[in-house]
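Section 3.1 - Work completed
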Amino acid sequence: MKIKISGVGSYIPELKVANSDFGQHTFLNEDGSPFGYPNEVVIGKFKGITGIEQRRYANPDQSASDLAFLASEKAIKNAGIDAETIDYIIFAHNFGDVKAGTIQSDIIPSLATRVKHKLQIKNPKCVAYDILFGCPGWVEGVLQANAFILSGMAKRCLVIGAETLSRVVDDHDRDSMIYSDGAGATIVEASDDETGMLSYESATFANEEAGYLFFGKSYNPDLDPDIKYIKMFGRKIYEFALSNVPAAMKSCLDKSGVAIDEVKKILIHQANEKMDEAIIHRFYKLYGKTPPKDIMPMSIHDLGNSSVATVPTLYDLILQGKLENHEINKGDIIIFASVGAGMNVNAFVYRY
């Protein structure tokens, strides 16, 4: 028996924030000193590396669980199921519900419980819980759903990835331009045909890698040092990803028994265009090959990095025909992969 994704939905916030909107920001170095060049140069270099041209932010009256609810409604409708038949709601996020203009994370009750409440699911045996697994959280949620279903503990799960990273960024850190908000949701259930998950990989590197992404004080020394924001060591993450993600993807594909030439799409976490391109090239190099054209769809240019929401949102956009030159057809082999805080790496091979 295998598991399949029978329904998918996403919610992309309406508020568009272009790179030019950061023109008046005061960007500072880690020690609080100003850059020696204007913001136009900072933004130009940023776009050249990440590929990001704009990103989406949630409306002030929306929280992560609100976005998740909207995406979940679409996934349930897409699957054509009764929400009361869902056995588990698995909600991947990293910072809980952070209201606009505040600095406090709200995770009681769990965000999964909040989504269950908003969906008006009455069945008490529908178990709702959250997972914190960095950007690979949605992929890990699918792997947990796989375990529940194959063990007989569940027949159907709702797996969500949603985040409002715009609420936890340091406006004085140029890396703040990377992050965005969004939500993706999927219905996962047993597959009774040839479709579904064929293999998976998951790992946590927690020695020196544990601190590559962390919560730290603002680069502005005049701000309260006890207020923390998302921070990262970009170069270390880049090197880590190039060393570990292609190897995990190869191990996953080899376990599936599928040949590299059969892979039609690779849906990888969208955080940095140059990094993703390097990962894909290194992955194919492990097989002595070069990547085919259009193997890696990208949404980062318009949506930025919405953490756990990026991969399911990307999948939904392709299935809806909203990404030019990209489609997924019956029988296609897809690799889902992600990397993020932990440092965590995971992937699964999937036949559509």
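Second construct:
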Amino acid sequence: MPITRRRLFGLFAGAGALVGVPSLWISRMKTYDGPVSDHFDGLTFFDPDGVPPKSLREVLRWQFGGKRQRATWPDWAPSPHADTPPARVDGDKVRLSFVGHASWLIQAGGLNILIDPVWSERVSPVSFAGPKRHNDPGIAFEKLPDIDVVLVSHGHYDHLDIATLKRLAKSHAPRVVTPLGNDVTMRSSDAAIKAEAFDWHDRVELGGGIAVHLVPTRHWTARGVFDRNKSLWASFVLETRAGKIYVVCDSGYGDGRHFRRVAERHGKLRLAILPIGAYEPRWFMRDQHMNPEDAVKALGDCGAEQALGHHHGTFQLTDEAIDAPAKALVEALGAAQIPQERFVAMKPGQVVEI
């Protein structure tokens, strides 16, 4: 397939949402400055048990190689669900509403918590190119209850959406809890974003008997040409009265040690939210994104009672078909002899209560 100017422009516009291919027109950004640790060398963050992201050469091989097989998604694939959340959820119950891709509203202990909120039309450094929505958010922005806390896992455009964070800062003024360095990105765009940055293994009290732990995950991050892994990435373990909820927004599987360590460190997990999409081709994606078979292994490793699948069906970031992750999850659960109801692929607007 020839490398046209149009295709190359589209690649660099949207690739930050997936593999962090830098948008070449972004100038040098402010980045994290802090002490050296076992996962920060003074300049960049790294996963001692992970692998570096793919090179630009490998990205171009994937995008423009002659053997690429990219499924065509429908222009619009609406979810049959839509949610209007209550103002608050008190007591011992937790209400989880799937917004789409990796975005969730979690209501517990009288708190309203958003995970990786993205209400934008595209996940890209520009508004006119890059991966575009194939369905509406499961909750209309205007129907959100008062938002108290936002958790942002890392800086890729399909997780850290500055436009949405600005809207939230203006209309809700929530706390924003994020791994080290992502606060710099947020505040440099809008000083009104109340970003607080934390390291792996930090525990943050959110109120209402709810706390969040930032835990290592097998991934990486970038937004511009000079900031590859200049910020940290993480998964979350939420402590709630209904039990602990393990939220994995983006991760490869590797040998499963990240998931086993969460089980060892945090004990019994009531629920795991696991990514099941953006995984083809495997030679390129396997180190950073799980496929459904990997996600089923991760469920076994972390030992959660139940799992919900996300990170699929809204933005076409990779080559699999729009419905491939949900179908492959059914097959993987069957092969592992795990009941289908234990791990459900969610659609925007669906709600689960525990």
